[in-house]
Every structure is written in C-alpha cells, then in structure tokens.
Amino acid sequence: MAGVRIEGARVLLTGASSGIGRELARELAARGAVLALAARREPLLESLAQEIEASGGAAPAVLPVDLSRRGEAQELAARATEALGRVDVLVNNAGGGVGGLIASVGDRDEGREAFEVNLWSPLALIRALAPPMQARGTGAIVNVSSLAHVSTWPGFGAYAATKGALTTATETLALELIDTGVHVMLVYPGPIDTAVQGETRLVPGIERMIGRVPLGDAGEMARRIVRGLERAAARVYYPRRVRMADLFPALVRRDGRRLARRTARELDPETRAWMSELVVRTGSQGDDLTRQAREEWERSRGRAA
Ligand SMILES: NC(=O)c1ccc[n+]([C@@H]2O[C@H](COP(=O)([O-])OP(=O)(O)OC[C@H]3O[C@@H](n4cnc5c(N)ncnc54)[C@H](OP(=O)(O)O)[C@@H]3O)[C@@H](O)[C@H]2O)c1
Fold first, then answer.
1. Pocket residues for ligand 1 (CB within 6 Å)?
2. Domain parsing of the chain, residue ranges
3. Does the annotation mark 159 as catalytic?
4. Protein residue closest via CA to atom 36 of ligand 1
5. Cα(252) to centroid of ligand 1, in Å?
6. Across 127-135, average pLDDT
7. Architecture field, domain 10-300
8. pLDDT tens digits for 67-80?
9. What is residue 211's predicted lDDT score, i.e. its pLDDT?
10. What is the 3-state secondary structure (H, E, C) of the chain?
C-alpha cells in the first residue's frame, strides 16, 4: 500500500493538548498537514494552534471535547468534518484512565470512563469517519495503543484492558479495510517521557517492569508516527525494545509474574492496605494524587505541567 502524503492532509488529532499528541501536532503541521486539534484543555489547544500558525503552518481548528462522555466523539467527528472539509487522517491518540486493583476498580464509573476514552470514543470516531474514507478510496486511521496488556502490572490492569481491547479492534479493522485504500496503523509507545510517567510511578513496584525499557522522547515518538504513516507501516514501536514484548508476550508475562511476586512479598502491610482501597482517575483532570504526581514529574523535567 502507498504511504500517506502528509502535505495537505486533513488530520483530526485527539489528545493534542500535551505529551505525544502535542509533539505530533507540531510534526504534522511542519510537514504541511491541516489539523483539527481535540482535547479538554482548550487554552493549551489554542496556544498550540497559535504556535503552529506563527511558524507558518495552516491555522488549526481547535475542538474542545471530553471523550469520556458518550456521544461527544460522534459530535467531534461532525465538527472536524465541518472545520476541515473532510478528514483524511484520524489519529486516536487521546488516552487516560484509572489506577487501582482489578478487584477494587471492578466496573466502577472510573473504569467505565477509561473505556469510553480509550476504546469507545476511538471506535465512535472510526464509525463516523472510516466510511467516507472508504468511499473516497483513501485515508488513514492511527490508533495509539500500548503494550500494557502484555506487560501489565497490579494496579494498572483496567487501563491495560482498555488498550488490549483497542489493539484487538485495530488489528481487526486493519483486516476489514484491506485493499480499500484506507491504511490502519497501530502505535505502541513504550514508556515515553510525558506527565503520564509521574502518575504511573505511584504504582508500587511498577518501575521494575517498565524500567527495563529506556524512557522514550515524545518528539521522537511523534516523528516515528509520521514516518510510519509515510511508509504505510502497520505498526510503530518506540523505544525499539518494545517490539520484543509484542513478539514474545509469553516471555514478558512470565517475567512479569516473577517481578510481581517479588514485589508482593516486599510490600509492607500499610502499602498493601492503601493499594487495596485505591481507585483513582488519572490524566490532567484526574484525582489530586495523580494530578500532583503529573505536575511533579513535569517540574522534575523542567517543563510546565
Ligand atoms: N507516555 C507513555 O509512557 C505512554 C505509554 C503507552 C501508551 N501511551 C498512550 O499515548 C497516548 C498519549 O499519552 P501521553 O503520554 O502523551 O499522555 P498525556 O500527556 O497525558 O496526553 C493524553 C492526551 O489525551 C487527552 N485526553 C485524556 N482524556 C481525555 C478526555 N476525556 N477527552 C479528551 N481528551 C482527553 C489529554 O488532553 P486533556 O487532558 O486536555 O483532555 C492529552 O492531550 C495515550 O493514549 C496513552 O495511553 C503513553
């Protein structure tokens, strides 16, 4: 399949306000894409749009949205189509979630919201935007997943489950759209140096699992996503070692069990009790605990939260 031409492409990018999405917006705009930027924090989208315009890019449309609310994704698709004229490339990058043990999160609202943002909203956007792409015989859908479902960890499982579901849906979509001219690409970020790292590190022992892969840079992740589109890659892995987890999931899981057992044995009763009660929303609008951890991480990296 031919690669995607970025220059002039009309791109709906979710999760553009921070981290990987913000870098991806800069990268796409620098190569001539026309963007619709979506996320909740409108001021951050506005400042990004101004920055892109000031550096010679096409003025992006700013589309504030809360993708944890059922129905907003469908409306976003219509707003983006109106603002851009059509959507050639859909990037489902927005993501967030919930922290807590599976038996604590269960089917609570926090867990359901994580599924809304990470699975149902991307699928709603695909449902709205894939048929017009198919009708034109060209387009691309990029879903930013995670290998969390392979390298899962106690306290991280509900988020991991959302990404596992997104991955399977994306793999299936790629088969369904074979030979339609619409390219489907899965992105597997390993640990990337964004505010997410602050909240992730609240989970006891998780560094044992994720610390085995060096932290990636969000700008480099963005460049690899764009390169992947240009080459019509089916998957983009970064840092490179993440690919091994996808190739050898059984080995990663075996290792995970060993590391989790060691961590469980070392946990003091207080931390164990804290963990068993913990259910927190993550992300920029998450609970105080996670938001503070994000802010501290960003400060420690010399960035504004
Ligand atoms: N960083 C990593 O190590 C890592 C690893 C694996 C996968 N990922 C995935 O990579 C993607 C980007 O993450 P990141 O690291 O760049 O983290 P981030 O800085 O927290 O970015 C998440 C983006 O998603 C948006 N978002 C979250 N909840 C939303 C909602 N309810 N409605 C609309 N937008 C929402 C956020 O915007 P607002 O808060 O302004 O709404 C933000 O722009 C996510 O899908 C994440 O799961 C990251």
1. 14-21, 39-41, 65-68, 93-96, 117, 144, 146, 189, 191-192, 194-196, 283-285
2. 10-300
3. yes
4. 15
5. 24
6. 98
7. 3-Layer(aba) Sandwich (3.40)
8. 999 999 999 999 99
9. 85
10. CCCCCCCCCEEEEECCCCHHHHHHHHHHHHCCCEEEEEECCHHHHHHHHHHHHHCCCCCCEEEECCCCCCCHHHHHHHHHHHHHCCCCEEEECCCCCEECCHHHHCCCHHHHHHHHHHHHHHHHHHHHHHHHHHHHCCEEEEEECCHHHCCCCCCCHHHHHHHHHHHHHHHHHHHHCCCCCEEEEEEEECCECCCHHHHHCCCCCHHHHHCCCCCECHHHHHHHHHHHHHCCCCEEEECCCHHHHHHCHHHHHHHHHHHHHHHHHHCCHHHHHHHHHCCEECCCCCCHHHHHHHHHHHHHCCCCC
Q: What residue has token string 């996808």?
A: 246
Q: CA–CA distance from 5 to each of 8, 142, 161, 181 (Å)?
A: 8, 14, 33, 13
Choosing from 18, 68, 121, 145, the catalytic residue is 145
Distances (CA, A) of 269 to 137, 178, 262, 274: 59, 53, 15, 9
pTM of the full structure: 0.98
Q: Give residue-wise pLDDT tens across range 7-58.
A: 999 999 999 999 999 999 999 999 999 999 999 999 999 999 999 999 999 9
Q: Is 300 exposed, middle or buried (0-12, 13-18, 19+ CB in 10 A)?
A: exposed
Cα of 298 from ligand 1 centre, angstroms = 14
Using the mean position of ligand 1's atoms as its centre, give its distance from the Cα of residue 97 in Å: 9
